[in-house]
């Protein structure tokens, strides 16, 4: 990684580093420390020079109405014990990690304007014996470190180029930088997940944004550098931000912008080498559809091809396309491809109605009654009625200023049915009445034991109108076609993440964890009973944290050996 020595260190305590942000004055900072002993044994409370309660009493920055969700994190890192309201389950032992774009301005200038641009902030909440400790820390990507050193962005983020090159030489230099990948960001602000070998990976959609972190200290360990040679000019420099990870392998999709198509690859646990399972050519053009996530069943990989397609000219010319790096081309068609996981053969490629989906919920095989063979693949997603308007909704000034306006585009649980009998068309229906979840749905999770299998429950962010952003947590029952919703006035919850109770047999036996940004600058980790969807505890951070995208659960067994033999191993 780039030199850490260039990071700002304005406080001697290693757990208190203030960011050089004009919105993070030192008077609002919190001086908290965690001793080395506490880091070895998080069951003991970390000692804080200024306790969480004192920090929480600091005045909100706009008189009590500011929402931390859209405000840059106030300091680079913090660590300490978190007060618990309610009662945490005795069985809840492990670490919840959440990743997201927590810093939208560096050095007093060059502020980003889109939610997706922010530099990655990793948040940790560790649960043991009914107590909780927490931390947050910036991921030290080259993009972040160079921005801090330069006082502004150096690499291209989701929506913004650092500077549009004016001269011919500058334009050529930019094109070379994009084609080689050198000018693209490595800011891994989307997902965080444990690999089967115990390494913990943060990533977003550029391949170079695969960054390994320490799940306890949140320190940046280094890059995951793939040892397979997959890549090249405009090829395979992009990856899905949501690989499917099991104990044995990582499965992902690499869009190919040079020869429009997708490579489906796997990487065995313990390896850095991806192997190609197969390739799917695009049916529409001129480039692949945005590949943020995809779906799998037990035997198949589902590769979506939607009309929001990468804009190669936008990337090379450093000019914004209608949707930043993408353009909406409904005439190019919408397709779903199904690839066999064992042979790499495409077993179905169907045209479907126009759709716009960033996140897939789950998929499974529908079996025929006669012979029990897979007759179709069912794919569920958070679908935006074939309208990419959600991308523009996520511009920061709209999120900050339109809180009371009902400007969140409608979304539904879209259910595709892809026949495996050679039929040319697939179906897209609405899985349940969208009014059940307020006509908003995204940032979804399921019980991971049901990945690729027939399932009943999904957890996601929904809406209580009027709103400009998903503001509820919703539990979807796909059998009864109903939803249960959690809502707190003015609060913005992040992705609800399901954690199963050890030994559970019911699909919804566990808890759901979400980090909530509340009004007044407060914030907390909310723990809901997954079956009843009622709050059982909230764990307060000393101050509200910015909105984050996706989380994961790190079982204690991955952390075994880091502590003093004093942790429970499930
Ligand atoms: Fe995502």
Automatic annotation (TrEMBL):
<keyword id="KW-0479">Metal-binding</keyword>
<keyword id="KW-0560">Oxidoreductase</keyword>
<feature type="binding site">
    <location>
        <position position="242"/>
    </location>
    <ligand>
        <name>Fe cation</name>
    </ligand>
</feature>
<feature type="binding site">
    <location>
        <position position="292"/>
    </location>
    <ligand>
        <name>Fe cation</name>
    </ligand>
</feature>
<dbReference type="Pfam" id="PF03055">
    <property type="entry name" value="RPE65"/>
</dbReference>
<feature type="binding site">
    <location>
        <position position="550"/>
    </location>
    <ligand>
        <name>Fe cation</name>
    </ligand>
</feature>
<keyword id="KW-0223">Dioxygenase</keyword>
<dbReference type="GO" id="GO:0010436">
    <property type="term" value="F:carotenoid dioxygenase activity"/>
</dbReference>
<keyword id="KW-0809">Transit peptide</keyword>
<dbReference type="GO" id="GO:0009507">
    <property type="term" value="C:chloroplast"/>
</dbReference>
<comment type="similarity">
    <text>Belongs to the carotenoid oxygenase family.</text>
</comment>
<feature type="region of interest" description="Disordered">
    <location>
        <begin position="16"/>
        <end position="66"/>
    </location>
</feature>
<feature type="binding site">
    <location>
        <position position="359"/>
    </location>
    <ligand>
        <name>Fe cation</name>
    </ligand>
</feature>
<feature type="compositionally biased region" description="Low complexity">
    <location>
        <begin position="31"/>
        <end position="60"/>
    </location>
</feature>
<dbReference type="GO" id="GO:0046872">
    <property type="term" value="F:metal ion binding"/>
</dbReference>
<dbReference type="GO" id="GO:0016121">
    <property type="term" value="P:carotene catabolic process"/>
</dbReference>
<keyword id="KW-0408">Iron</keyword>
<dbReference type="InterPro" id="IPR004294">
    <property type="entry name" value="Carotenoid_Oase"/>
</dbReference>
<protein>
    <recommendedName>
        <fullName>Carotenoid cleavage dioxygenase 8</fullName>
    </recommendedName>
</protein>
């Amino acid at each position: 990684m780039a030199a850490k020595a260039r990071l700002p260190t304005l406080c001697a305590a290693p757990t208190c580093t203030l960011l050089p942000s004009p919105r993070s004055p030192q008077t609002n900072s919190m001086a908290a420390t965690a001793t080395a002993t506490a880091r070895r044994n998080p069951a003991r409370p970390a000692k804080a020079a200024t306790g969480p309660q004192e920090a929480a009493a600091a005045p909100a920055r706009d008189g009590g109405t500011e929402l931390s969700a859209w405000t840059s994190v106030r300091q680079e890192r913090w660590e300490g014990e978190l007060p618990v309201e309610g009662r945490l389950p005795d069985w809840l032992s492990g670490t919840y990690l959440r990743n997201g774009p927590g810093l939208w301005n560096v050095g007093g200038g060059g502020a980003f304007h889109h939610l997706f641009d922010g530099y990655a902030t990793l948040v940790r909440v560790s649960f043991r014996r009914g107590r909780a400790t927490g931390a947050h820390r910036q991921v030290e990507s080259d993009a972040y470190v160079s921005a801090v050193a330069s006082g502004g962005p150096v690499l291209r983020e989701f929506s913004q180029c650092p500077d549009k090159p004016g001269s011919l030489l500058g334009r050529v230099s930019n094109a070379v930088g994009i084609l080689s990948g050198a000018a693209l960001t490595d800011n891994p602000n989307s997902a965080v997940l444990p690999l089967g070998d115990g390494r913990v990976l943060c990533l977003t959609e550029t391949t170079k944004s695969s960054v390994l972190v320490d799940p306890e200290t949140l320190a940046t360990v280094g890059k995951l550098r793939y040892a397979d040679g997959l890549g090249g000019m405009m090829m395979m420099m992009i990856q899905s931000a949501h690989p499917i990870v099991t104990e044995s392998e990582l499965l992902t999709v690499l869009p190919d912008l040079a020869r429009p198509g997708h490579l489906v690859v796997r990487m065995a646990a313990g390896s850095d080498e991806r192997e190609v399972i197969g390739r799917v050519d695009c049916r529409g053009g001129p480039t692949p559809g945005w590949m943020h996530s995809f779906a799998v069943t037990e035997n198949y990989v589902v590769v979506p091809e939607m009309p929001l397609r990468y804009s190669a000219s936008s990337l090379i010319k450093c000019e914004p396309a209608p949707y930043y790096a993408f353009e909406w081309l409904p005439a190019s068609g919408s397709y779903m491809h199904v690839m066999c996981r064992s042979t790499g053969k495409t077993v179905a490629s169907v045209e479907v109605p126009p759709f716009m989906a960033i996140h897939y919920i789950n998929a499974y095989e529908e079996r025929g009654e006669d012979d029990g063979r897979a007759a179709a693949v069912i794919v569920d997603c958070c679908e935006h009625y074939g309208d990419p308007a959600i991308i523009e909704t996520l511009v920061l000034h709209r999120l900050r200023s339109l809180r009371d306006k009902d400007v969140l585009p409608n979304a539904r649980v879209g259910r595709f049915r892809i026949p495996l009998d050679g039929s040319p068309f697939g179906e897209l229906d609405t899985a349940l009445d969208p009014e059940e979840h307020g006509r908003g749905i995204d940032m979804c999770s399921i019980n991971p034991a049901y990945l690729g299998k027939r399932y009943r429950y999904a957890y996601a962010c929904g809406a209580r109108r009027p709103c400009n952003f998903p503001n509820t947590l919703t539990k979807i029952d796909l059998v009864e076609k109903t939803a249960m919703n959690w809502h707190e006035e003015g609060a913005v919850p992040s992705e609800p993440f399901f954690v199963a109770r050890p030994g559970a047999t019911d699909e919804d036996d566990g808890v759901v964890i979400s980090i909530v940004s509340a009004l007044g600058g407060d914030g907390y980790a909310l723990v809901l009973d997954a079956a009843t969807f009622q709050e059982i505890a909230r764990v307060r951070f000393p101050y509200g944290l910015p909105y984050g995208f996706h989380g994961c659960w790190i079982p204690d067994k991955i952390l075994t050996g880091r502590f003093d033999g004093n942790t429970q191993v499930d």
